[in-house]
Amino acid sequence: RKDEIDKLEKPPKVNNEFTGCKVEGNVYGIYMDNTCLNVVSECEITNNRVRGIAVVDDERNVLTGNRFTGNYIGLYLLRSSENSIDGNVHRNDAYGIYLDLSNGNRIEDVKVDESRLRGIVIAYSSDVYLKGNKIQGSPINIYLLNARNINFEGNTTKGGDYGLYLERSRDITISKGEIMSHSRGMVLSYSSSVTIRDNRFTDNFIAIHIKDSRDNRVDENVFTENSHSIYLTKSVRNIITANKFKVRSEGYNAMVFENHSDANIVQGNDFCGNKAGGSGNSIGLKFLSSISNRVIENSIHDHHIGVYLDKNSHENDVKENHFYNNDHDIWIEK
User: Fold this and answer.
1) What pLDDT does residue 3 have?
2) With helix as H, strand as E and coil as C, how does the chain read?
């Protein structure tokens, strides 16, 4: 019995350790296949043509404090689990970090700058935790494809076309993040059971675009100086609650529902327009060919139009809202 306890209490033995290496100009910089318990730290991984570091069919490795520059894929994991990735810096890789069929990994305090294609990719993977990472200046900063049970906490994206792009993914939680200065701060495409909570969206053209998606929640976020805060396209049964919206001074709409975005709930939000010190042309909630939505117990103020419903939008329930200082509280197109 004592021998069994001693085995449990002893830390796992490191298999191989690479520290302070300079790996440059190869096809693969470091390739780890079907091993475990390796440590790669404080290495310079530069201009490798296929992979800076490749981890294949592997587990429980630690990759920390490395610098990746100009690789095609800086760090690539394939069918690899329970790895710790922290404190690395990526600059000008085509792809910074790419997880493929890799579950149970952690990515923390990583900085990814100006990836040529995508900063972080999580594809066909589950149970990944990302905390405190800063990703900026990539065409797509973070991309999820067929991902499951991914937890984002306290990450920052800035600049580039897309902050986070979720495609065919579910059971995702995104919290305490900063999403700034994108064409689209966040996109949900064919995704469900995504919770977006307690984030700040600033200076995006569209902060969140939810398209062809259902059963998602957007709670307790702050939206400031976005042209459009939340834009729904063919999306149903989403819940938008307890958020604060302030439309950009030359912006357009706090929320748009278009092309049969039906049966959504919007409750307990504060929708502030741009009449004070802005163009005064904003709309709080705009419904275009969308039905059976519920808009209840919101504060809707300082807009040109508080709620706009086009002639193809009907059976929407707008009640118990507080309208003030709008040119028109509700406008129904004939």
Assistant:
1) 52
2) CHHHHHHHHCCCCCCEEEECCEEECCCEEEEEECCECEEEECCEEECCCCEEEEEECCECCEEECCEEECCCEEEEEECCECCEEECCEEECCCEEEEEECCCCCEEECCEEECCCCEEEEEECCEEEEEECCEEECCCEEEEEECCEEEEEECCEEECCCEEEEEECCEEEEEECCEEECCCEEEEEECCEEEEEECCEEECCCEEEEEECCECCEEECCEEEEECEEEEEECCECCEEECCEEEECCCCCEEEEEECCCCCCEEECCEEECCCCCCCCCCEEEEEECCCCCEEECCEEECCCEEEEECCCCCCCEEECCEEECCCEEEEECC
Mark residue 220 as left, alpha or beta (left: phi above 0; alpha: psi -120 to 50; beta: remaining): left
Query: pLDDT, tens digit, for every residue of 162-192?
Result: 999 999 999 999 999 999 999 999 999 999 9
User: Distance between CA atoms of 152 and 165, rounded to whole angstroms?
Assistant: 13
d(CA 122, CA 152): 12
- What's the pLDDT band for 262 if we cut at 50, 70, 90? very high
pTM reported for the whole predicted model: 0.94
Closest CA to 109 of 95, 97, 122: 97
CB-count burial class (<10 Å; 0-12, 13-18, 19+) for 276: exposed
pLDDT number for residue 11: 54
